[in-house]
Amino acid sequence: MKKSEVFKGLDGRNAPECFAALRTPCYVIDEERLKDNGRILASVAENTGCRILLAQKAFSNYDFYPALATYLAGTEASGLYEARLGAEEMPGKEVHVFCAAYRADEFDELLKYADHIVFNSVRQLKQFGKTAKESGKSVGLRINPECSTQEGHAIYDPCAPGSRLGVTREIWNREMTDDLICLLDGLHFHTLCEQDADALAATLEAVEQGFGDVLPRMKWLNMGGGHHITREDYDRPLLEKLIRRTQDRWNLQVYLEPGEAVALNAGYLVTTVLDATENGGIRTAVLDVSAACHMPDVIEMPYTPPLLNGEADGNPENPYRLAGPTCLAGDVIGEYSLDRDPVPGDRLVFGDMAIYTTCKNNTFNGMPLPDIYSMDREGRFGKLTDFGYADFKGRLGKRKA
To answer: What is the pLDDT of residues 325-342, one digit of tens each?
Structure first.
């Protein structure tokens, strides 16, 4: 992804100085970039008739749900709490839920919030499908088309060998009955991760080969997430062609549930340099932000996030390792070439930090949770949180000091 695209929302602003008044570390959500993404997604829906949902697993900052509701059909949830959040904060919109396995002691409550319930196995469809149907919910089953289109990120590949996600055709043939098929309103697949429409085209071919005989009986097909629809070079004409062809061919409603695409390049993580060290010729700037705590995908994916006024990897001109303050030796954000030598007090800004950050961060080592700010079109900030010691202590027990 082009760096100019990542920091487009800061064009015309004197960054990082524009963040000088904010206490770091902090996340800043760019309202205008969110709306830009929303407008792109809304145009795809308008051009095709598909319905697009926010996958809350990637972005669940509900203060922005009222603005996003203008562009989206609703939310997608991975369980009870996300389903409740979507129902409460985007009222009147659809709530879809997929979970790898539902809990019996939560299912009745889940039915209060969900409109669509997608099951991951035939066993769970048997266990809960009739109850969901009798409660007026639209029932779906996740399928596994056994079509891997990504490399290097097996942890994110639902079609990897042995995957627990989705029903293969072999399992379908062995376990499905006509009574169970009659419970279904739709099928769901999710196979992509930060990919273009060509990967969806390949997946749809596999879906047709594996489940083309079932689709005429369905009312909808959910194509999941992983579609990088709002990226500048994404092939939206091809996406729209695939959606229209699918809906026309099988006379069903197509759903998409992107997460990253909704908040792509709509957030920044602002940090301050605390110290600079050197060991074995490697110079390290120690920041007040932690990869392990505040940007966990950097370690889990792994990847090197874009940096304003710096280049990631491969440039030897002024190399520095950027790292966090925790005791974890591997709390490293990445290797960068910086515009100048960092000194304590300098502000650095990481880009594309609205996704998989605020919804995944943690307080390991007693690290404080970074506060979250909104930034409007005029560059004005609104503080949305007030995290502190109580947020760290409260998740570990209930005894009062």
So the answer is: 999 999 999 999 999 999
pLDDT beneath 50: ranges in the chain = none
Which conformational region is residue 12 in: left (phi greater than 0), alpha (psi within -120 to 50 degrees), or beta?
A: left
Q: Show the tokens assigned to 115.
A: 């409109």
CB atoms closer than 10 angstroms to residue 363 = 19
CB count within 10 Å of CB 341 equals: 11
| Neighbouring C-beta atoms of residue 264, cutoff 10 Å | 29
Q: Which fold has domain 3-29+266-394?
A: Lyase, Ornithine Decarboxylase; Chain A, domain 1 (2.40.37)
The 3-state secondary structure of the chain reads: CCHHHHCHHHCCCCCCHHHCCCCCCEEEEEHHHHHHHHHHHHHHHHHHCCEEEEECCCCCCHHHHHHHCCCCCEEEECCHHHHHHHHHHCCCCEEEEECCCCCHHHHHHHHHHCCEEEECCHHHHHHHHHHHHHCCCEEEEEECCCCCCCCCCHHHCCCCCCCCCCECHHHHHHHCCHHHHHHCCEEECCCCCCECHHHHHHHHHHHHHHHCCCHHHCCEEECCCCECCCCCCCCHHHHHHHHHHHHHHHCCEEEECCCHHHHCCCEEEEEEEEEEEEECCEEEEEECCCHHHHCCHHHHCCCCCCECCEEECCCCCCEEEEECCCCCCCCEEEEEEECCCCCCCCEEEEECCCCCCCCCCCCHHHCCCCEEEEECCCCCEEECCCCCHHHHHHCCCCCCC
Q: How do the domains of the chain map onto residue ranges? A: 3-29+266-394, 49-262
- What kind of fold does domain 49-262 have according to CATH? TIM Barrel (3.20.20)
**Tens digits of residue pLDDT in 148-202:** 998 877 788 999 999 999 999 999 999 999 999 999 999 999 999 999 999 999 9
